[in-house]
Recover the amino acids of this structure.
């Protein structure tokens, strides 16, 4: 559920696994003389003898080995009864309620079916139980959802690799909030998804990788660019618009995105340059003509030039991303019916952005990371009518701090995330605990608290306290 | 620290069949352990392995040690090769096969022998969608020993070299599991002791095979806190190998078994395999792994 926990968890497993507390001699098991360790070492040597069993897998079991299946049940909700003061004398009630109660089945398939060939796919099915917001949006009845995530075929030969199908392309070094991680569109449907790794959606692409001796090239063509979906009715992020928000109407129009990425690794450092022709993932919505019908979704194409680098110094890793965007919409977050914003500022501008930060392994158990994302439109006042202002003027962006502590040989990982905007208008604080019960079962708990002032888009969620739990079975 | 799986083999591969008892009898404790270290480097070069780490709480029933719960199992595949001056630098790649929740996770490590060179590590998580560099520090960082893959084996238990940091002596010549062994004590010097969890260790080294059949680890109160037991000792490609190692933690009553399911040394490994490509390009990786398997079949 929370992919941000995956990295520290992995660090715990692989490299920065927990340190035992000092041994207390009183607790030491004294092995009795009757426990003999000769001639077979006193215990059944075949305690783990099955590991050595030469078992030829049957055709069916070999085929099944290509699958990884994860089943999870999630329950979460807003627990703090309070009101949000929108204006003097106007308070918006926020009652405690269950938001998600859902069962998810995730299936991943990976099969290198012939030398140099790979077929990989993943998909999910969800069942929304009583009290889930999708259940309510479905007229108080159980709802289901099915989705194919990735599905691609890959052929690798010599120094080349070609991948065709639904997939993701990730650029940038800063984990969580890179200004370069914008190739794929994303969906933050509710507060159970707060990390880009979980929100990123696959698109139909052809990707060509060239692995040179000194550096690598990776190029893509997106054959069917998609856009961030509008909020799902009933979700915490859904607010009834005056006009229905629809997807972009292609009307037979063929859209393409393409880009290339060059990367070189040095001892202690990686650098990359990149360039792409893209469509902004976020559609711009305008009121329908004559005020009748659905909102009009407008797309915008732009050019991205980027540079990223990292530098490892001992246990410190520095990350840096730089993005220059040519011809982005100056005011892309424009929703129909919100009269304060209907002065659609149909201007294209250049934008420069950076994300940078560090990751530091405090010791074998603990790690901390910081990421800051800052963006600014160039010549932002140029073209504005008197009295017009941009939603994002000056420097805008977010920051992210993560801390994790791995305990019990990595079985228990405690983590916390603080996320805010550079204007200090909102703060999201997350505390999470991941406990691995055994090789199949795991449980995750998280608490999210939101603070926001009157100027923040998160104002409606101010003082919300969300609690969630997810039980997962994987095999 | 980042030799991880690669150095796990140190404990297992510590004898060459060509070593004879006649030669061995003339060696003192330090020379024996130096020979063990030398062989471990030799045998870990150009290696392709598959292993399983099982961990559980243990209990004693009818004088037999048994798992008191269903063991946690990690299955790993690794490929490694030595580089650099005297082949003391290592490039290795490890892929997790099991458990399902971690399947496909890969790690590429470059471990440098020089103390002032930081090791390099890259990690691939499918969820992350890209290769990520991990800042891992150098081998000689003053760090506490860390558990390997959440098991009772630690980096300290699997470290090669550093013999100059120990006072080594032969306590006695005795038998263990029906084999003639040297009982060798290793006491860390002051500098080493600061990094170590053990005040001393006692190893039972098979005189003929140069395999540690048993290692006892003692804490600062001279209480035995961990015990390593080796079994399934087999001659593979002129190398004596303990294919099953069980580390018992006598404090936590947990044990971990490391089963070397496949071990192949002297394999012809293409340098391109030990690059970031192997982490991301699964079609390439599986093709190359098939070639490696083909060399040993």
């Amino acid at each position: 559920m929370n992919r941000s926990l995956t990295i520290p968890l992995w660090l715990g497993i692989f490299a920065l696994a927990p340190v035992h507390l000092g041994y207390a001699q009183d607790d030491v098991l004294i092995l009795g003389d009757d426990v003999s360790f000769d001639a077979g070492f006193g215990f059944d040597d075949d305690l783990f003898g099955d590991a050595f069993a030469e078992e030829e897998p049957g055709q069916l079991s070999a085929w099944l080995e290509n699958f990884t299946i994860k089943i999870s049940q999630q329950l979460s909700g807003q627990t703090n009864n309070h009101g949000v003061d929108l204006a003097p004398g106007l308070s918006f009630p926020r009652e405690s309620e269950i938001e998600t109660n859902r069962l998810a089945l995730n299936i991943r398939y990976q099969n290198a079916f012939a030398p140099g060939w790979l077929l990989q796919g993943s998909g999910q099915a969800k069942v929304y139980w009583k009290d889930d917001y999708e259940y309510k949006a479905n007229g108080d009845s159980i709802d289901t959802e099915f989705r194919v995530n990735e599905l691609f075929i890959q052929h690798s030969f010599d120094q080349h690799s070609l991948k065709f199908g639904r997939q993701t392309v990730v650029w940038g070094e800063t984990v969580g909030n890179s200004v370069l991680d914008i190739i794929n569109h994303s969906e933050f449907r509710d507060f159970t998804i707060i990390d880009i790794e979980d929100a990123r959606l696959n698109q139909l692409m052809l990707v060509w990788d060239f692995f040179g001796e000194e550096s690598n090239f990776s190029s893509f063509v997106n054959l069917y660019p998609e856009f961030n979906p509008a909020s799902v009715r009933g979700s915490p992020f859904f607010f009834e618009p005056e006009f229905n928000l629809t997807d972009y109407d292609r009307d037979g129009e063929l859209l393409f995105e393409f880009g290339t990425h060059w990367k070189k690794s040095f001892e202690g450092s990686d650098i990359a340059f990149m360039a792409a022709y893209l469509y902004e993932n976020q559609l711009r919505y305008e009121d329908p003509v004559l005020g009748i019908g659905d909102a009009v979704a407008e797309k915008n194409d732009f050019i991205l030039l980027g540079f990223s680098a990292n530098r490892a110094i001992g246990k410190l890793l520095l990350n840096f991303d730089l993005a220059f965007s040519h011809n982005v919409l100056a005011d892309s977050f424009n929703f129909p019916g919100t009269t304060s914003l209907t002065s659609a500022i149909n201007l294209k501008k250049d934008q420069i952005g950076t994300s940078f930060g560090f990751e530091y392994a405090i010791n074998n158990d603990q790690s901390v990371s910081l990421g800051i994302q800052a963006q600014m439109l160039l010549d932002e006042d140029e073209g504005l009518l008197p009295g017009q202002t941009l939603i994002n003027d000056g420097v805008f962006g977010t920051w992210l701090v993560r801390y994790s502590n791995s305990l019990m040989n990595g079985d228990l990982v405690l983590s916390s995330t603080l996320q805010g905007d550079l204007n200090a208008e909102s703060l999201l604080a997350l505390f999470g605990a991941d406990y691995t019960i055994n090789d199949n079962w795991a449980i995750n708990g998280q608490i999210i608290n939101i603070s926001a002032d009157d100027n923040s888009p998160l104002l409606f969620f101010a003082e919300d306290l969300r609690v969630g739990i997810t039980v997962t079975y994987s095999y | 620290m980042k030799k991880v799986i690669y150095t796990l083999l140190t404990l297992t591969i510590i004898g060459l069949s060509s070593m004879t008892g006649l030669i061995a009898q003339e060696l003192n404790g330090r020379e024996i352990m130096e020979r063990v270290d030398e062989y471990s480097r030799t045998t870990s070069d150009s290696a392709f392995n598959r292993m399983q780490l099982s961990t559980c709480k243990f209990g004693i029933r009818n004088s037999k040690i048994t798992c008191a719960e269903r063991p946690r199992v990690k299955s790993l595949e690794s490929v490694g090769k030595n580089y650099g001056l005297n082949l003391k630098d290592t490039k290795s790649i490890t892929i997790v096969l099991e458990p399902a929740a971690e399947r496909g996770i890969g790690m590429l490590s470059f471990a440098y022998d020089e103390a002032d060179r930081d090791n390099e590590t890259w990690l691939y998580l499918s969820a992350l969608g890209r290769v990520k560099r991990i800042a891992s520090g150098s081998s000689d960082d003053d760090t506490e020993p860390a558990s390997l893959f959440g098991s009772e084996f630690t980096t300290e238990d699997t470290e090669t070299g550093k013999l100059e940091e120990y006072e080594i002596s032969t306590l006695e010549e005795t038998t263990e599991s029906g084999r003639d062994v040297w009982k060798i004590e290793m006491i860390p010097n002051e500098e080493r002791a600061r990094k170590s969890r053990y005040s001393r260790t006692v190893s039972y080294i098979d005189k003929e095979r140069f395999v540690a059949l048993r290692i006892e680890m003692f804490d600062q109160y001279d209480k035995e806190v961990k015990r390593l037991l080796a079994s399934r000792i087999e001659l593979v490609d002129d190398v004596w190998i303990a294919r099953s190692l069980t580390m018992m933690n006598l404090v936590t009553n947990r044990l971990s078994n490391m089963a070397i399911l496949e071990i192949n040394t002297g394999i012809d490994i293409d340098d391109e395999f030990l690059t970031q490509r192997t982490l991301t390009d699964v079609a390439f990786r599986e093709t190359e792994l098939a070639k490696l398997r083909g060399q040993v079949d």
Summary: Chain B is about 15% helix and 45% strand.
